[in-house]
């Protein structure tokens, strides 16, 4: 199985998440060979491409091309390997000494130094900068002073970060975290050049990174053009001349462009085309397991959805969803019914286990009973919100609502609530404006059980969009992070997951395969365990 299924803890269990058409996409490169340009479907990111402010898939795709961090995740196995890290040393899993490799620069010629990381992490953590991934720095000593839960910051930088010399810095964590180094391949930990701080507005307009590509142009709602950076010092140099990411508001249109020869790559084959894809593309269709789970989140910030006893309502709604029928009918072997809140790619050693039990099995009679015992659906009708532009969400949301309505014997119990674009949808989700349950897919940031739990359900975590909170869950996550024994750490995370199950803090729906289709103009197309195309390895024929 692709991904981290059989990897060891140090590699996998990094004790832990990311649309105007244009014709002639296949011809953008002006020919083939090493200078040919790949055209691929895409959606506008929610936010500007600051590494610590990007926690969704579309922006993450770009960061994977323009940045490299201390660690890099193997595109086939998911294992965390050193990239810019010459070495990361510790004797107590709390104090770390990090040495940065020589010879690395940003695309503007500026050297990548210890300060490039320390300054970037301090920026990402500070409350005044309002970075969505700030909580990824919460394990560093001094985080609470730069990002207090209440009030104003009392420091500008974290006390746990110290620059020793241009190539060396030290990190002191506020707790034991034995696998912390393996989290450092996540984009939030990327280095930033001085240009980011000297002229922030200019940098946002045209980001400068240290990866195999540079951003050439970006027209929001249309496309982003990335060019190969010939001065890139890494071993994973781009095998093509660049990538043009084309914005689509309907992935059916992207698929049509692909089959018409006007686009090279679609990395989200629409559900409506799954019956045709094998005949259309043959062996140019990719369908492989990935670290992705789809769930229904709840707006716990809304008093109507956060009353005592409503865990029974949420459990009942979960039991009213016929996952097997929906995945068989709509997704045709590209989804698997969920039995927990993680992903099968972790494997049993990494924490995958049937935790959800009966609450994830279809049982109409019990569902109806639990929904009634939980006080019924607030207002009598619940709206499942989703972005209408990509992902074929309308089909499955309608199917989920039909299943719930049939189980409850009420055709008005559940309706879909489409929101135009992914960016608009994420804006409403992240500002707590959901009128009821909402689509909450998660793509792992690094292959570890912690990443499927802490960022999503820990109190005030970076991607805890529903504002779920349980002190016992938080306590168990903290204990698991501090555990040096692999088996005990996994077991403790699973105990936290049991708390999540009993609360039904989110409804697990299904695990998602990575799917993609590509034209005969390109080759060597690969999806990594995160279901992101490995753009730099694609060759133009």
How helical, in percent, are the residues?
25-40%
| Mean pLDDT over the residues | 91
Largest sheet: 6 strands, antiparallel
Total number of helical segments? 16
Q: Which regions are unreliable across 5 or more consecutive residues at pLDDT < 50?
A: 1-30
Q: Label the overall shape.
A: globular
Distance between the termini: 28 Å
- Percent in strands: 15-25%
DSSP strand tally: 20
Short structural description:
By secondary structure, the chain is α+β, with helices and mostly antiparallel strands.
Would you give an account of this structure?
The protein has 541 residues and is of the alpha+beta class. It is 28% helix and 19% strand. It has 16 helices and 20 strands. The chain has helices at 57-66, 114-125, 143-146, 194-198, 200-205, 251-259, 274-281, 310-319, 323-331, 347-350, 364-373, 393-408, 422-430, 450-457, 471-482, 486-503, and strands at 37-42, 71-73, 80-82, 85-90, 95-100, 161-165, 168-172, 213-219, 223-228, 242-247, 265-266, 285-297, 335-337, 382-387, 414-419, 438-439, 442-443, 506-518, 522-523, 539-540. Strands 11, 12, 13, 16, 17 and 18 form a six-stranded antiparallel sheet that branches. Strand 8 (213-219) and strand 9 form a beta hairpin. Helix 11 (364-373) crosses helix 12 and helix 14 (450-457) runs antiparallel to helix 15 (471-482). The longest helix is centred in the last third of the chain and has 18 residues, at 486-503. It is globular. The two termini are 28 Å apart.
């Amino acid at each position: 199985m692709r991904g981290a299924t059989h990897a060891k803890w140090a590699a996998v269990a990094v004790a832990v998440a990311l649309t105007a058409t244009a014709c002639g996409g296949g011809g953008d490169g002006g020919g083939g060979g090493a200078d040919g340009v790949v055209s691929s479907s895409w959606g506008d990111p929610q936010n500007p491409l600051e590494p610590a402010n990007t926690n969704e898939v579309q922006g993450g795709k770009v960061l994977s091309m323009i940045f490299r961090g201390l660690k890099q995740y193997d595109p086939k196995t998911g294992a965390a390997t050193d990239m810019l890290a010459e070495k990361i040393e510790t004797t107590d899993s709390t104090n770390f000494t990090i040495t940065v490799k020589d010879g690395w620069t940003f695309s503007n010629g500026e050297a990548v130094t210890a300060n490039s990381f320390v300054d970037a992490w301090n920026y990402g953590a500070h409350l005044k900068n309002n970075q969505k991934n700030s909580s990824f720095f919460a394990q560093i000593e001094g985080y609470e002073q730069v990002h207090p839960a209440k009030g104003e910051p009392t420091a500008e930088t974290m006390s746990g970060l110290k620059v020793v010399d241009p190539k060396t810095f030290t990190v002191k964590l506020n707790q034991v975290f034995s696998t912390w180094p393996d989290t450092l391949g996540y984009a939030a930990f990327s280095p930033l050049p001085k240009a980011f701080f000297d002229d922030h507005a200019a940098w946002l307009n045209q980001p400068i990174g240290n990866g195999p590509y540079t951003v050439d142009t970006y027209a929001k709602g249309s496309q982003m053009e990335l060019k190969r950076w010939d001065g890139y010092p890494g071993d994973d140099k781009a095998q093509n001349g660049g990538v043009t990411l084309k914005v689509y508001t309907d992935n059916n249109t992207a698929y049509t462009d692909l089959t018409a020869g006007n686009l090279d790559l679609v990395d989200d084959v629409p559900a409506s085309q799954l019956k045709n894809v094998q005949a259309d593309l043959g062996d140019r269709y990719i369908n492989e397991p990935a670290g992705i789970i789809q769930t229904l989140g709840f707006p716990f910030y809304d008093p109507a959805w956060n009353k005592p006893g409503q865990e029974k309502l949420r459990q009942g709604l979960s039991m009213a969803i016929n996952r097997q029928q929906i995945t068989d009918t709509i997704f045709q072997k590209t989804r698997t019914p969920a039995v927990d809140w993680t992903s099968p790619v972790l494997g049993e050693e990494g924490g995958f286990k049937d935790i959800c039990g009966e609450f994830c099995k279809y049982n109409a009679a019990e569902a109806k009973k639990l929904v009634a015992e939980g006080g019924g659906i607030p207002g009598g009708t619940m709206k499942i919100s989703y972005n209408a532009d990509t992902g074929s969400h309308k089909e499955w949301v309608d199917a989920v609502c039909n299943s719930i309505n049939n189980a409850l014997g009420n055709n008005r119990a559940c309706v879909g609530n489409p929101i135009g674009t992914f960016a608009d949808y994420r804006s409403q989700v992240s500002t707590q404006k959901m009128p009821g349950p909402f689509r909450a897919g998660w793509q792992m940031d690094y292959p570890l059980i912690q990443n499927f739990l802490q960022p999503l359900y820990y109190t005030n975590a970076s991607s805890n969009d529903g504002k779920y909170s349980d002190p016992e869950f938080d306590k168990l996550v903290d204990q698991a992070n501090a555990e040096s024994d692999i088996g005990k750490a996994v077991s403790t995370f699973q105990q936290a997951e049991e708390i999540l199950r009993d609360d039904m803090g989110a409804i697990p729906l299904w695990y998602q395969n990575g799917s993609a289709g590509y034209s005969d103009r390109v080759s060597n197309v690969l999806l990594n365990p995160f279901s992101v195309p490995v753009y730099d390895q694609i060759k133009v024929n």
